[in-house]
Design a protein that fits this description.
signal, 361 residues, carbohydrate binding, D-ribose-binding periplasmic protein, Peripla_BP_I, single chain, Rossmann fold, Bact_Solute-Bind_Prot2
């Protein structure tokens, strides 16, 4: 006890001396809250150097999206990021560039941001390699890079916030195995081919199926889009409706597939989903079996906060994880909003005014 008190006294004395001398010291990394549920990754996870990217207020921050209009989730990510930037008085300009799912366009977008001399860059990669060289170029130019919504092959980025991925896919896969049984027959609805989030979520499903006799009887990409997934599920139903459960990689695909079964007047099989308001409404109304891993669009806001923390001179860990447990029906009931459209996603950090502006019926 006496030794601990002495350590506290010494630490307090050191702080007092630094303050008296006019010196400053960085906020501890654990004091920087990027987003609820986001925690530093375990293992070798170094901190950024204190003050390495610190700049006076009046920042320009750029963001390279893999595809703003890829689906309704990515649209909301843009809203969440812009709202977070607008709420920070030190951000003078927030530049959002849309790669439109084009790898070459993303390379050009990031190099354009570098040429404009932005103070920080936030990147959502199109593929695991599409942004690597450009990110390395940005960091070499002294520009911190925040990565989220997809892992890449280079580790040149400054900090990353990674949710979804294997954890997301395994949460759904484990639930589906428990629900359909060891010998179940399932469909697999994958996201955008080549996107790292699709690959990693699928790898999580593979982990969940190891050691079971669950059979994948159909597998295809619905690109996380409602229209494409609806057409895909119609084709699968007409060719082989005898399915015990559906592993859906999320976004708008679950809602589309549920609509297909209702269209044919068939019983909706157990199906995994994601935090979409329209899907929550279906789930509540129709009572089918489901689970919803959490993958909030407020990651857009978290990316902005990470960039801000670095420009304020704070230290961040190299890697952060966002791996919350899946939401059940009761949680969906708490989040669902009947006064908002099907296109809003949860959890969100948008204000009530913004929610009504973008998603009010």
């Amino acid at each position: 006890m006496e030794e601990n008190m002495m350590k506290l006294h010494n630490a307090a004395s050191l702080c007092a001396l630094m303050i008296a001398a006019g010196l400053s010291f960085p906020a501890l990394a654990q004091d920087v809250e990027l987003m609820k549920g986001v925690t530093p990754a375990e293992g070798d996870n170094p901190l950024t150097e204190a003050g390495a990217f610190q700049k006076d207020c009046g920042w320009t921050i750029g963001m390279s999206y893999f595809g703003v209009n890829a689906n309704t989730w990515t649209v909301q990510v843009a809203h969440e990021a812009e709202a977070a930037a607008d709420a920070n008085d030190c951000i003078e300009k927030f530049i959002q560039l849309d790669a439109g799912l084009d790898q070459k366009k993303q390379v050009a977008d990031i190099e354009d941001l570098i040429a404009q001399g932005v103070d920080a860059i936030i990147v959502q990669p199109v593929t695991s390699t599409s942004a690597d060289a450009s990110i390395e170029k940005a960091v070499a130019a002294g520009i911190p890079v925040v990565l989220h919504t997809g892992r890449i092959e280079t580790d040149a980025f400054t900090t990353e916030i990674q949710g979804g991925a294997e954890h997301f896919g395994k949460v759904m896969g484990d639930w589906l195995v428990d629900t359909v049984g060891n010998d179940g027959r399932i469909w697999v609805l994958r996201g955008l081919a080549g996107h790292p989030e699709d690959t990693n979520r699928y790898n999580g499903l593979v982990q969940a199926l190891e050691g079971t006799n669950v059979q994948i009887i159909a597998e295809d990409h619905g690109d996380w889009q409602y229209d494409k997934a609806k057409s895909l599920c119609e084709t699968l139903y007409l060719s082989n409706p005898d399915v015990d459960g559906i592993w859906s990689s999320g976004a708008d695909m679950t809602r589309a597939c549920v609509d297909v079964f209702k269209q044919f007047g068939a019983e909706i099989p157990p199906i995994s989903g994601e935090g979409n308001n329209g899907y929550f409404g279906q789930w509540i109304a129709d009572g089918f079996q489901s689970i919803s891993p959490e993958y909030g669009p407020n990651q857009g806001a978290a990316g902005v906060r990470a960039a801000v923390a670095l420009l304020e001179g704070k230290q961040l860990y190299k890697s952060y994880n966002y791996n919350p447990p899946g939401l059940d029906l009761e949680a969906a009931k708490q989040l669902y909003r009947d006064d908002l459209s099907a296109n809003v996603w949860w959890p969100s950090e948008l204000t009530e005014e913004q929610l009504q502006e973008f998603y009010g019926k």
